[in-house]
Design a protein that fits this description.
Layout: H1 9-39, H2 45-72, H3 81-87, H4 99-127, H5 131-155
Helix pairs in contact: 1-2, 1-3, 1-4, 2-5, 4-5
């Protein structure tokens, strides 16, 4: 079925590709945050366990919204782990980390996503004229800014 939402087919596909990269980043960050939630230990276990849980819940909600935005453009949303790892702009972490290392790793990922989203926002709006997804990505960036602030404040 033809998608007629005021964007050219090329723009719809390009925006969907950007959104799928954002989806992959969110999924990798979600997985990392959940892993840290399960494996954190130390004197601040309870507070960090709760902080990580709140953050992965926020990211989980965003994952569904991002995938639905891709589908609203008439394109398939990524869904496989191999697909996510092939497209993500984050690196996966391995090994056992201390609680402060976990916080620093998550902060680094949120900041990387924020920087990437700034470029994505410009591309979606200026290059493709998709103000709806530009606004959506701005909202995601604001959520990552808040989560980064919480992590940064925890480290200080």
């Amino acid at each position: 079925m033809q998608v007629n939402i005021g964007l050219s087919e090329a723009s719809r596909k390009a925006v969907a590709q950007i959104l799928n990269a954002v989806l992959a980043d969110a999924y990798v960050l979600y997985t990392k945050t959940r892993n840290y939630h399960w494996n954190v230990k130390g004197p601040h276990f309870h507070d960090l366990h709760k902080l990580f849980e709140a953050q992965y819940d926020t990211i989980d909600g965003a994952i569904d919204e991002i995938a639905e935005r891709v589908r609203s453009l008439g394109e398939p949303a990524l869904g496989g782990l191999k697909d996510f790892l092939a497209v993500t702009r984050l690196s996966d972490s391995a090994g056992t980390l201390t609680a402060p290392q976990m916080i620093a790793a998550l902060l680094s990922d949120h900041e990387a996503i924020i920087r990437q989203l700034r470029g994505d926002i410009d591309a979606v709006g200026a290059q493709h004229g998709d103000t709806g997804n530009q606004d959506f990505l701005t909202g995601l960036m604001e959520e990552h800014e808040k989560m980064a602030w919480m992590l940064r404040s925890t480290l200080e």
